Amino acid sequence: MITIDFNKLDISPDARILDIGCGEGRHTIKACQQKDTICIGADFAFKNLVETKNKLAFHKNFNDLKCKTIDLSCMDVTKLPFKSNSFDSIICSEVLEHILDDAMAISELIRILKPKKILAVSVPRFWPEKICWLLSDEYFNANMGHVRIYKKKSLIKTIESFGVKHYACHYAHSIHAPFWWLKCFFGPNRTDSKPVNLYHRILVWDLMKKPKFTGFIDKLLNPVLGKSLVLYFKKL
C-alpha cells in the first residue's frame, strides 16, 4: 500500500533516499525499485526492520530491485545520525502523529535534506482520524499510538517554518477509512469481529490483485474520503 507518489519525488540516478519510520518496508521497497538509487530504510522498532529485510529478500529473488545499495538501520527520528544536506529525497509516511516532539523530528528531516530536494510527508487526515478518536479511546491510548490529529493548513505552516516550501498535496486510501472506523467501533484490539475481518480480507484481496474497479473507486473517493493527507515540500 503505497501512500507517497514517487513521480513527485524527482528521483534521478545516484539519488540518496531515506524512508524514515519505514515500518514493514512498503516505501523502502518502492524506493529500491528506482534505478541506481541509494536507499536507507530506518525505523525505531527493530522488528519492523527484520520484516523489511525479509520482504526485500523476497523481491530480490524476483530481480525486482534496481537500486545500487540498500541499508536498514534502527534510529530515532528526533536524533538522526546523518550529516546535514545528505539526502535527495526523504519519505516520512504515517510517522509524525506518533512523535511527541514532532517539531524536533521535522527539524531533523529538513536538516539532512539537500537544498532544492524533496520531503514527502503523510499523516492521517483530520476528519477520518477524528472519527476514530471519537469511536475508541483505545485507538489513541495504545503504546506508540497516535498522539495528535493534524489539520492541513497548520501542518503545512509548521513544516514550512523550518525552511521548505510546500508545492503539492493529495489524499490517499479512501477505501481504508471505513475499515478503521469499523475497527474502532468494535474494538481496536479485538480479533473476533466478523465485519472487521471481512473488510480486512477485502483490503488484502485489493492489495494483492489490484483490480481496476477498486482502484478507480479509491481514486474517485480520495478527495472526500481519503484517510491519509500527503504533502510535498522542497527545501529552500
Tell me what you see in this structure:
The chain is an alpha/beta fold. It is built from nine helices and seven strands; from the N terminus they run βαβαββαβαααβαααβ. It has helices at residues 26-32, 46-61, 102-112, 126-135, 137-141, 152-160, 177-186, 194-209, 212-225, and strands at residues 16-20, 38-43, 69-74, 87-93, 113-124, 164-172, 228-235. The chain has a seven-stranded mixed sheet, with helices on both faces. β2, α2 (46-61) and β3 form a beta-alpha-beta unit. The longest helix is centred in the first third of the chain and has 16 residues, at 46-61. The chain is globular and about 45 Å long.
Write the layout of secondary structure elements.
Layout: E1 16-20, H1 26-32, E2 38-43, H2 46-61, E3 69-74, E4 87-93, H3 102-112, E5 113-124, H4 126-135, H5 137-141, H6 152-160, E6 164-172, H7 177-186, H8 194-209, H9 212-225, E7 228-235
Parallel strand pairs: 1-2, 1-4, 2-3, 4-5
Antiparallel strand pairs: 5-7, 6-7
Helix pairs in contact: 4-7, 7-8
